[in-house]
Write a structure and sequence with these properties.
The chain is of the alpha+beta class and 186 residues long. The protein has 8 helices and 4 strands.
Length: 186
């Protein structure tokens, strides 16, 4: 991991822990989860929001006012809104994507869930997602929430990441393995 990435991750982890603990102590985890989902979706959908949090051309004051207005409009929970204002004041909004990931992980862990990243060659049907989640839940011993993505270059099969474990059953990986074996022989 590069040094700036680990610094960002460390900053995000500290903010996430504080936000999570305050929400938990106030019995407000459901509201926090909803706010994290909404803000994460907004980050994914809005190039302007991503520019606001990453660009150094905006002053602390401008970032603070903008992020507070966004938090008000989105009706984010008070602890999240206050934290975003503090992060703007400290010029730490650039860690917002990592913060969302850290908060999701803390909330999922609190609920006894684990997240699995699943990449497939074509979109999975609801039935396939349900069956896969059931199998992964049995293996992990926890409820599994799926984050699905499509990568047509896989040709077929799946890549499943649960925590530090990765299972690659894609045709692309099998062809690459076969190619390596053939290189060793010839």
């Amino acid at each position: 991991m590069s040094e700036p990435a680990s610094i960002s991750s460390g900053i995000a982890a500290r903010y996430a822990t504080a936000i999570f603990e305050i929400a938990r102590d106030n019995n407000d985890l459901d509201s926090l989860e909803s706010g994290v989902t909404d803000l994460g979706d907004a980050l994914n959908d809005s190039a302007d929001l991503r520019e606001l949090i990453q660009s150094p051309i905006y002053s602390r004051d401008a970032q603070g006012k903008a992020i507070t207005a966004i938090a008000d409009k989105m009706q984010l929970p008070k602890v999240l809104k206050s934290s975003l204002g503090l992060m703007a004041d400290k010029r730490r909004l650039f860690v917002l994507p990592q913060l969302m990931g850290q908060l999701r992980a803390l909330i999922a862990d609190n609920k006894g869930e684990v997240t699995a990243d699943v990449t497939s060659a074509k979109a999975l049907t609801k039935t396939q997602e349900t069956k896969l989640a059931k199998v992964l839940s049995a293996q992990a011993g926890k409820d599994v929430k799926l984050n699905t993505a499509v990568d047509e270059t896989l040709i077929g099969g799946l890549i499943v990441k649960v925590g530090s474990k990765m299972i690659d059953t894609s045709v692309k990986a099998k062809l690459a393995s076969l190619q390596n074996v053939m290189k060793e022989v010839g």
